[in-house]
Structure formats: structure tokens, C-alpha cells
Amino acid sequence: MNRSLLRRLVSEPLLQLLVAGAAIFGGYALLSPSGARASRAIVIDAEFVRSLSRGLARRLGHAPTRAQLERAVERHVEEELYVRGAVALGLARGDAIVRRRLAQKMRFVAEGPEGPPPREAELRAYLAAHPRRFRRPPRVTFRQLLVARDKHAGAVELRAAATRLAARLSGLGASSASGLGDASLLPRHYRRRALDRVGRELGAAIARRLRDAPLERWSGPVASPYGLHFVYLERREPGGAAAFAEVRAEVRAALLAERRAARRARSLERLRARFPVKVHWPHGAPAPAVTASR
Amino acid sequence: MLTKYLCLAGALLAASCQSPPAALHDGGAPDLPPRTGPCADNNPLRSVFFGDLHAHTALSFDAYTYRVRALPADAYRFARGEKLTFTGDRELALDRPLDFAAVTEHAEYLGEVALCTDETSPAYSSATCTGYRNLPYGAVITWGLKLQQQPVRYDFCGADNDACLARAGEIWKRVQQAAEDATDKSAQCRFTAFKAYEWSGFPSGANLHRNVIFATSKVPAEVVSYYDEPTPAGLWKRLARDCSDVDGCDVIVIPHNSNLSRGEMWTDKGADGKALTKAEATQRVALERLVEVTQHKGDSECGALSSDELCGYEKYEPATAFPLSFVREALKLGLRLRQSTGVNPFAMGLSAASDNHNAAPGAVEEDRFPGAFGVKDDLPNKLLSTANLAFNPGGLTAVWAEENSRASLFAAMKRRETYGTSGPRITLRFFGGYGYDSALCSKSGDELARAGYDGGVPMGSELTARSEAPTFVVAALRDAGSARRAGSPLERLQIIKGFIDQSGALSEKVYDVAGEKVPESTVDLGTCQSSAKGHDNLCTVWRDPDYDATQAAFYYARAVEVPSCRWNSWLCVQQGVDCAKGAPAGLGNCCSDDKRIDRIQRERAFSSPIWVYPQGGTP
Fold this sequence. Notes:
The complex is a heterodimer. Chain A contains eleven helices and six strands. Chain A is α+β, with helices and mostly antiparallel strands. Among the domains of chain A are: 34 residues; 66 residues, no CATH class; 101 residues, Chitinase A, domain 3 (Roll), CATH 3.10.50.40. Chain A has a four-stranded antiparallel sheet with strand order 3-2-5-4. In chain A, β4 and β5 form a beta hairpin. The two termini of chain A are 70 Å apart. Chain B has two domains: 304 residues, no CATH class; 149 residues, Immunoglobulin-like (Sandwich), CATH 2.60.40. Helices cover 23% and strands 22% of the residues of chain B. Chain B has 15 helices and 28 strands. In chain B, the strands form seven sheets. In chain B, strands 1, 4, 6, 13, 14, 17, 19, 20, 24, 27 and 28 form an eleven-stranded mixed sheet that branches. In chain B, α5 packs across α6. Chain B is globular.
């Protein structure tokens, strides 16, 4: 080989590229610790072969032959080779399914384990810290009379009927009014009903009225989905802090849910610290809400 | 290493490389001592409580493949009014909490799913489990079809199915714990959860599904699945035996989706294929106290072939050729079998449920139907696909009980003092007796109830025929609605009679007894607003004009609401679809002129029957 040929070859772009590539890969191989190399090997350990063998035995109804076992091992090796190749080529990037899967696995890993179940003292402390969440509902014992919407031609007639009933009720006790008002399937007498339940059955306005209504006299009219009512409150049992035994299961569920949410938030914060986030909003995107968080 | 990669490379499923049942809920609290006295608002005249006795969570094999990850505890929280996050990152809370609920996981595959999703289990890397996790849409079909075949479990269950049975037992414990934790055992009595599961046999394509509902805290340690007992008769026998081994145990069985049973939910044959015997009839009616009359996969009250104009409601298979797929036919056949065996095997009360697979019991509001199958129907375009239009949000069970405690509700279910609704919380009373005051309807609800119980029997009971016709008192109050949305008024009350004459022929008759039909033109499909006035309260005291004291008969009441938008119409309105401008992509069914798509419906409540049997026992 003469010098001019050598010079020409050296100036050939393709050869330059090849040499540069060889240098980089060779250098990488030489510089990598041997452990990294070893970990690239696909090792099928004996325990895995045994579990394959057990699975095969169940499917076949007898212990697999050496040939069957070898084929099963080979199938797993092939799959692993493809997976390694795909990861090396970056095929997982931009794949929505793989991304979602990775995100889910990371969420699980980052949140960490559930932790020990809450102790009794912790539950009691949680109840003490959140008494409003576990209140016993107020209860009311009352009578009601209805001026039924569907028994009167319109709003004016309904009002007029209510006014007439109000006049008759003034000064009457609970029992002497029992024949008054329009018939309906609603009970006349409610005993110790939770105020929130009254709200569901007769509407929020009646529940509000019963919260403040004077005891032992007729009060109204007050509207419900069924018309106008007069109520006679006989007894009001204030709501109050619940006894621990009453709400223990609820307290426990709330505490566990809160801990789970806290773990999730912490793990997300840790990741944010590692990977700063910057969002470039395009022109023409909807304006942020006034109360936007973050 | 390998399993990690397998997990990573193929999985479509959210949590398939962990074990959600094991990871998300721990062992739980010791049971509270039961309350010693009655509930604070105990009512001897009985109050109505609304609940849903049929819902699934991620522990059910099909729900898991729909990427549902909520668990029984989440389902009970939702039932009690708390917010639940659905697939597709949607949140929903009920307007009104339920009074009671039962999570009813499929007993089939309870252990299998747990094993297949637990990376540490030996079954995890089996071909079946890998397929279950990675190909969920295929797996739900293959696993489902397997329930139509010979009851042989998957290989990975191991010798004698030990691995799957053991794991199923653990999951059943978790399900029980969730019910125990959710039940309010104080005198406040705010919520009751029942320990329950679903037996899901589907032999040869006939849906014979049944929910198993326990009365008690202590229940048998094993669930009974199609693989353990492949026939309903086997289920009854096994339940009777297992329950008798547990102190205080009591149980009922609620068949459902007879509309998909190819006429096999109720037949006149015994287990051996010969005529039904008295012993079999007795065992059956001792357990099957209620039937689900309507739910997510269609209405089973009566077939579209009936002359009753309201039977076209929510027919999942409109052209089904099996009359005995419907409850009313079964109630009639029961009269005939009572003549031949001496016992009516099909004396069932009526109930309804959601059968929601999103861990969302009670999500039955038409204008906020979140779907019922996870990712399969979680977006408007999926919900409005032609296949999904056949479904509906399902209904609720109403129970007349003294109080909201397990014992009181269960006793009411056993005596069949229940009714089903297609979703609304209509109040419905129905009494039968002799000599009711014809002026009962001018009384209040509590006076009517007192007279009803004093002078006769409530829905679900039996009367002995006299020469004079019995009197029925039927009264309904429309749903009060919520702050978010008013309830619909009532259109009319009906009484449906089924009877057997001297020749043994079975007939039915529908009577309009109060109110009047309202035309569907009162609904504006562009806004889903209704101009119908209807009634808040309907009540009548009624006598059968065709009464014959020699005939055995049943009577049940139906309260019908004025026409309103079906869920799909609400969704189209909410999506802002304007058919004059053409439907947006994926929402074509909003504007299609396909007459098979229902857009307007009449919601309803169906009472349990009152049976009237001729004197002197059965002929």
C-alpha cells in the first residue's frame, strides 16, 4: 500500500466514520466495568426452570420431557431478547401503553407500602382532630300538615289554602289539628328522624325550618316538592360529637384514605424535585381561572 | 428479572404487576359489638329504605378487565354519599346516599383474579394469567364463555383447585370486612351493608345468575361458585348446608337477568328433569324470596310480546322468544305448580338493582349515568355506541322496615315487603285485605299504614280467598328529587293481576286504577324538559271487578312516572348536540332515525305481589 493510497483512504469520509465508531464502541467496551457486561447476559436460573416445569406439568398432566422444557425455555429467551432489543432501540419511547404502564408502576413504587394499620390511639386522635366530620346528626320529632300542590289549581290557590289553614291552626295543639290539611302518603308524625334524612324526604327548606322552629306550636307555611307545609316541632335532639365506638370504622377509613393521599402527594413532590417542570402555554389557550392553583 | 420485563412489556392493565386486593386494603378492625337497643328512628309502622343489592368492584373478573380498580370499601363509601373516581378520571357522588347496599362480586374467579394479578403467586406467569392481564378484552370473553361450559377451573388453580379456593377464601374475608366496616352499628343506623356475592352460572348460554345475600355477620367461610355447584339446585342445597353450620346464619337468593335466561330461570322441572317435587319447591321458595325485576342489562318484568303496553320498557333483547324469561310469567307458572306440588316455588317479591361494575352502587340517575363497565363505556361516544345503547343505569330496591339495621331490612326482604324501582325514589304502599275503609285515601301516610296492617297484609304476603272480593289499597308518592334535580310526577297507578282458571289456563290483566296516561309529546328532546303536570300523590282503594273466589291469583301494583328523557337523550343534550347541524363524530346515534333506539321512557316502581289463594288448600 503506497502513501498516496493511504492518504486517500484516510481522507475518505466513510472510513473516518468507521474508525470513529470503532474507537467509541471499543473505548466504551474497554472502559465499562465488567459487571455491566455480566448483567447484560440473559441468565435463566434453576428456580425459574423449575417453575416453568411445574406450569407445564399442570397443563400437560405429566412432567414435561427435556425437549418440551427446552422449547419452553427457548420461548422465554426469545421474548427476553426481543424485549432487550426493543428497549435498546428505544421502542418503548412514545408508546402510550408502555408509558402508562411505567407511570403506574412508578406510582406504586413511589407511594411505598401501606404502612402498619392505624393504632387505636391514632384513631381516637383523628376523631378528636376532626369532630365535625363525624358528628351525630340532629334529630327531630315533629308533625306536619300539607297543603298539596296537586290538589289546588295554581300557586295563588295554594297560597290561599295555606293562609286559611294558618288561620285555623293558630292556637291549636298538635292532636287537635290531626284532621286538617290535604291527604298524602307522607306521614303526619315523624319520630326522632335525622335532620339530613328529613331534608332528603321533604326538601332542604323544611329541614332548615325544623332546625330553628319554636317548640310545640305550628309554624309555616314552608315549601317542599309536594306543596306547603306547617310543622309542629315536639322535640329536637341536637347533633353532637359521636362516641368513638359509633364511628370507629368511618374514622379508620378516613384516616387510611388521608394517608394514602399524603403518600401520593409526597411521592409526586419528590419526583418534581428531581425533574423540574416548565409548561409553555401556546397563544390562544384558554385564560387561567382566577383561582388557579399551582 | 424476566417476570419484570414481561410485566412491563405487554401489560395493558393498570395494576397487573401488583396485587391490588393485597395492596390496597389491610386486615381491618375487630367487629364492633352490635347495638343493644333499637335504632333512634325505629318506626313500628315501617319506613321505606332505598338501596342497591347488586354491584361489582375490581375483585370481579370482568370489572377488573374494564380497568376498574375501586374495591368494596370504595363502593360502600360511594353508596354512603362520598365521591368516587371512575375510569377516565371522572368523579361522581350520589345526590342522595343509599340506606343500604350489597357488593356482590362474582364468586367465579374470585381466587383466580387475585392469583393472576399477584406477581408473587406461582400462577402469575401462567399463560392464562398473562393473557388475562395483557389481553383484557379477549380475556373477559374467554373467561365469561367458560362459565357456559363444563365447570372445570383453569389449570393454574392446581391440584384439587386448592390454590384458587384458598385465595378465594381470603378475598371473601376482605369483602366481608368491607361490609362490616361500612355498617353503622350505632343507634344512628345510617347505613347497612350486606355480606353477599353472585353465583354466575351461564350454562349453554342461559343466564342463571343469582345474588346470595346474608343476614348476618357470621357467614360460611367459602363462596359457592359455578365451579363448586354448577346448578341452581346445587347452590340451594349447598347454601342450606353451609349456612346451617354457622350460628345464626340466614341467607336469601335473588335471581336476576332472567331476560337473558333463554326461558330457563324458571321451569316446571326438578333437578332430575322430571316434574318438580314438593320438596324442591319448598327449598326453592325458602331461599328465593326476591327477584330482580329490572337492572343495567334490561328489564325482566314482562316480555314485549305481552299485550301490556308498558312491557316494551328496557328490553335488552326485544325479540326474545322465551316467555319464561320474564318474572310475570314465572309468577303465573308458580300458581300452576302450586296446584301440582302444593307449594308455590316462584312466590317471589320484587326488587331492582344497578348491577354496576364500577363499584358505584346506586348510580342510577338517568341524567348522570356514568356507565357501568369501566373503560368499556366511560365516554359519551362509547356510551352512545349502538351496542351500549341497549343498557340502562338500572334501579333500586325499596324495603319497608322498622329501621335501617341488617336484621330489620333482612326480615323485610324475607317477608317480601319490598318493591323495585327503575331508579327514582317513588314511595309505594300496597295492602290487601277485607273490609278496608273506602275513605282510606283521605288519611295521612301513617294512618293509612296503620289501617293497612291492621285490616290486612302488606305487599309480599298471602291472603286466603273469601266469597267477597278482597280490597286493595295502593298509594304512591312521587320522588322528592334532590336540590340538583326535581323528581318526576306520577302518571298513574296500575294493578297487575295474574291468575289460573279451572281449566288450568294462565292469564293476566292490567288495570289502570288511578291517574291517567300522559303522552310522550310532553317531553322536549331538545332540552329534556317535561310539560306534564302529573300527580305528586296517587291513592285508591280498589276491588277486582273480575274476582273469582275459586281462582288462585296474584296482584301487584305498578306506579308509573310521566314520560321523561332516557339516559341517552340526557347525554345528547348535555353534549350540546344540535341535530339540525348534524351530530358530531361518534355521537351519530343522538340524531339517528333508528326507531329501535328508545329516547323517552316511563320510570316506574313495581311492588311485590299479594297472593290470593282459594280456601281449603290446594286442589
